[in-house]
Design brief:
427 residues, four-stranded mixed β-sheet, 15 strands, 16% strand
Length: 427
Amino acid sequence: MSGLYGRHRAVSPEWLTLYYRHPIELTHGEGRYVRDADGNRYLDFFGGILTTMTAHALPEVTKAVAEQAGRIIHSSTLYLNRPMVEMAERVAALSGIPDARVFFTTSGTEANDTALLLATAYRRSNQILAMRNSYHGRSFSTVSITGNQAWSPTSLSPLQTLYVHGGVRTRGPYAELSDDRFIEACVADLEDLLGHTRGPAALIAEPVQGVGGFTSPPDGLYAAFRQVLDRHGVLWISDEVQTGWGRTGDHFWGWQAHAEHGPPDILTFAKGIGNGMSVGGVVARAEVMNCLDANSISTFGGSPVTMAASLANLSYLLEHDLQGNARRVGGLLIERLRGITAAFPAVREVRGRGLMIGVELVKPGTDEADPEAAAAVLEAARAGGLLIGKGGGHGTSVLRIAPPLTLTVAEAEEGAAILAGALHAAG
């Protein structure tokens, strides 16, 4: 072992995951393409785990970062920060939450951690309802509410977590039900669970489960949950770290597919809004956000540079209707992938919405996950010039596809063709 990989192994934890048998170093990016240290060019269908949301080296963002860095890079929240206030105003208005307050963090993990702090303080309860197959971050509190064993390394927790069914539509005890009956069964499960608790603080849920393999319930499930939660005074936290900013195409926020009974009490975001800069945040109605009775600051959350990047990125996204592009190009890509994979018995399902697509793999003739096949397809796709991700929850193996939202139809076709070749090569 030599070179950068050897140096990495010598100083990094063993649990710090790297993709590929021979890991690659990405050194340049432009648009939807990246290059590695050896000069190989790849079409990027994973965007740094859904983080390069708009495009690599987007001129509007790099210009905003450079200009702000030339003025001042850092000040902390102890001082007024114009870019942070401007960004908070825009996020509050877009959130759909009335009388919203916004707190910026440096990651989705930290955003969810803050949301848990707010909910438990507001409700004076350390009980949290979470979804099976979920993922909410890497901190001590967020791994303890993660319903995905592969990403939850400890059972120790500052919280008591109770898991609700409904985040996975096509597996589990209710998979064969119609959508309406599925929702009824999940609501009954929630009602039963609440009958055995002492008043949970909140339900936290991803509208589309990211690490869990881009699974989602029927539209309206969380609206039905909301009615039950409201009767018990339980808050609803929508984890929009992967689903926010129009990625799903049909909606700007994932919760809007479940909007019949209003917005969530708390919304968390991160990843794509900084287009690669380290940005996360929490939006909550004022009563909830202001419930803390101690001082707090953020040293790096809402820094002038990351806020400048986010403002430029958000403006570009809205002015160029990237949500609409995700809906149009994502719809074409999903149908193209369904057509391609129909000939592959190892593909159980192609699912998703917008530019958030999962391809679930199984051992042919069974319903059993095939993680080795997923790893082989990942390798073959890279060899063909395409970067994708992988994930999946209990007993599943899923290819994760989430390109930048500026993806063109020609690039969608190119990526689909490479993936078809990869499936052939791995099969």
